[in-house]
Amino acid sequence: MRAALGVLVAVLWCAALSVTAVHAQGAFEQFGAATQLSATPLPIIVARLIRAFIGVLGIIAVVIIIFAGFRYMTSGGDVDKTSSAKRMLVQAVVGLVIILSSFAIAQFVLNALTRASGIGGGITARDAGAFLEPLSGSLGAGIVADHYPPRNALDIPRNVRIFVTFKEAIDPATVNADTVKVFPTAEGDGSALGTSDLAVTFDDARRSFVFDPVPLLGNADTDTTYSVFLTPDINKADGRPAFEGGNGDGYAWDFEVSTLVDLTPPKVVSVIPSGGTAAPNTAVQISFDEPMDPVASTGVQDAVGGSFFDHIEVQAGAARTAVDGEFRIGNGYRTVEFVPLDACGQDRCGDIVFCLPFDEQVRLLARAATLSSEPPQALLVGAAFDGLTDASGNSLDGDGDGTAQGKGNDDYSGPAFQTGSTVDDRTPEIVSISPDINEGDVDVNRDVTITFSMPMLASSLNGAAVQLWPDPSYEMSFVPRSENLNASGQVAASDEAVVSTRADIWHPTFLPPDVEGGPYSYYPLVTRGVKGINQFCLYPAFGPQASGAGSCATEQAPYCCNGSPSATACQTVGGQTLPPAP
Fold it and tell me: Which ranges carry the SbsA Ig-like domain (predicted)?
């Protein structure tokens, strides 16, 4: 696929993946609409005229060949007539070969111009419907922030628990086996799990829901494809439908269940801060080697408010007193972050910044869950777990020895670090993007990545703040993931310092340029909702300029649009203002 990447950043940062000739096409379309003339570009008109002219010459050449043959057949043995007919025939055949070669060249040029301009003309365009995924648009662009298993995932264990996280609070009474259908794809939703076979739990914010199939999914002999359908009957907490507008029919996805059961406990792979000193407004971050149950790993510790979440604790001082704050999950359910409740300032967006106790020793404690009679499976206490578990209900392996030993015996104690007395007020910047601004010939399956200048809050790199928009618009899912990087720009190992973060936008196959309605542009977009590990927002939208020199965006022009600073919100080539309304 040919595409070009641009960047719009600041209050908004955004980039465009677009076909090279889209800009020229837009100009022609605007002129045609204003004058009521044909919107076909002049180069294509000329190419078509040349092709028609060559076609006429071909007809003339064929007539000459027929006439030469007629003269030869009626020469009656006359040497002069026979010689003249032969010469005419040879010349006509040579001319026809030249004409056919010219026609082939003209057709090739016309096809190239047609594809570049996105105009079907006499060329048959491929049906875009073959590349689209129905009922997928709510992931990223709509109400669905994330889910597990991911779309089209393979090798999912039979004892998987299904996670869905929404962007807004949901009415739990509308989330049940009737509105969330889990079924073998080949059998249809008539075979969906019933109420007695699908246990449902949710977090205190009523945004993350966990669906636990009571029977094991699939079978022990063959892989089985399953579908999940979130119906339009799910409502937000305020009573309005969760699925609205173009995504009003709900959301659905498939994944493939293997023949195996997951009995491997999850491990901790990294912690930020990992010792030393840190500014008091640094969020505490813990990452795992696999997705974790969002209900078991998120919550609020607030002694004053009477909320006591203790599956993870951030402890301060010699007495190891639990610090009040909120535990949030992100990065495909692999990263949990702690943000304190004690306000200590504001960032440049006017958002409140929160701090750990100043000048104190701080450490993190992550608790394993009580084991069931079938370890490493955790014991359900009521409808929930009393410690950290993975997507298959296995308890945390705190010491990383491969064996889950349960609550109190296998908790994880992170390295202690010392907070300072000064708030870290750095503003995160975008240092690189891939594909580059206005880059051409982008593969349809190429990853879209955005690298920041500092470690970032993984929970802020979500579908509301990191987006990917097609233009012209069509139903397309997207979801961000993140990796922490070392000083060399590689994924940081557990014993390496994290100096930056890279966001990866997962997306389906881009539409090739020869599909109906194409070519399409793609705009990666980053809003000021993304925050550094110090809780400071991306404002202005400092990012790479289109020229490759210097930083885009200023105080007066805080948006960065395709590598150029702008005082107003960015727009696509087609005139769509970004970020679009949800």
Answer: 145-255
- 514-518 long-range Cβ contacts below 8 angstroms, 24+ apart: 514/115, 514/123, 514/125, 514/126, 515/125, 515/126, 515/127, 515/128, 515/131, 516/120, 516/125, 516/126, 516/127, 516/128, 517/125, 517/128, 517/472, 517/474, 518/19, 518/118, 518/125, 518/128
Q: Please tell me the distance from the alpha carbon of residue 208 to that of residue 357, in angstroms, as a whole number.
A: 30
Distance between CA 437 and CA 149 in Å, rounded?
32
Give SS3 for 111.
helix
Query: Which residue's entry shows tokens 């409140």?
Result: 352
CA atoms of 481 and 333, how far apart (whole Å): 10
Query: Which of 472, 499, 495 lies closest to 483 in space, CA to CA?
Result: 499
> Is residue 271 over pLDDT 70?
yes
* β-strands 361-366, 551-552 pairing: unpaired
CB atoms within 10 A of CB 416: 14
pLDDT exceeds 50 at position 40: no
What SS3 class is residue 52? helix
Residue 20 DSSP one-character state: T
At 408-456, the pLDDT tens digits run 999 999 999 999 999 999 999 999 999 988 887 889 999 999 999 999 9
494 three-state secondary structure: coil
Asked whether the beta carbons of 258 and 199 are under 8 A apart, the reply is no
How many angstroms separate the CA atoms of 259 and 552, rounded?
51
Hey, what are 174's tokens?
């509308």
Integer Cα distance of 385 and 309 in angstroms = 12
User: DSSP label at 439?
Assistant: -
Torsion of CA 272, 278, 280, 282, to 10 degrees: -30
Q: What's the CA angle centered on 260, arms 255 and 266, to 5 degrees?
A: 85
Six token digits for residue 470: 């097609």
Model pTM greater than 0.90?
no
Paired tokens of 287:
């990452």
Identity of the residue numbered 239: G
Rounded distance, CA 82 to CA 433, Å? 73
Which tokens sit at 351? 């958002």
pLDDT, tens digit, 9 for 90 and up, residues 471-486: 888 999 999 999 999 9
The pair of structure tokens assigned to 304 is 């004053």
Phi first, then psi: what are they for 117, rounded to 5°? -90, -10
Q: How far apart are CA 176 and CA 144, in angstroms?
A: 16
The residues pairing with 148 across neighbouring beta strands, listed in sequence order, are 163
What is the DSSP secondary structure assignment for residue 343, as one 8-state letter?
A: E
